[in-house]
Write a structure and sequence with these properties.
Layout lengths: L8 E2 L6 E2 L19 E3 L1 H8 L3 H11 L1 H10 L4 E6 L2 E6 L5
Antiparallel strand pairs: 1-2, 3-5, 4-5
Length: 97
């Protein structure tokens, strides 16, 4: 790892290293920009998976958020997430369906 890259993050859209973390994702910085979608609650995520909120919390801690996203994708739900100060926000991409 190059010095200074320990705080670098991967761009959500183009997967390149980004050294900033803007509060708003600017459209003009990345040609792959896609809106985040409609924010949905953890309770809704649990309902989509047919589990309780406490089980969702345990699975997120044990397996990680990517595991939850994989489970949702297998059920046909396109969900993205963003971690902000240790809190995970979920966004539903197929809101028009």
């Amino acid at each position: 790892m190059v010095k200074g890259e320990e705080n670098a993050k991967i761009c959500w859209y183009c997967q390149k290293i980004a050294h900033c973390y803007p509060a708003i994702r600017p459209q003009n910085k990345c040609s792959c920009f896609v809106p985040m979608g409609k924010e949905i609650s953890h309770k809704r995520i649990a309902a989509l998976l047919s589990i309780t909120l406490s089980i969702l919390d345990k699975q997120m801690r044990k397996f990680g958020t990517d595991y939850i996203i994989t489970q949702l994708n297998e059920r046909g739900h396109i969900i993205r997430y963003q971690v902000i100060n240790k809190y995970t926000r979920f966004y539903e991409m197929n809101t028009g369906a």
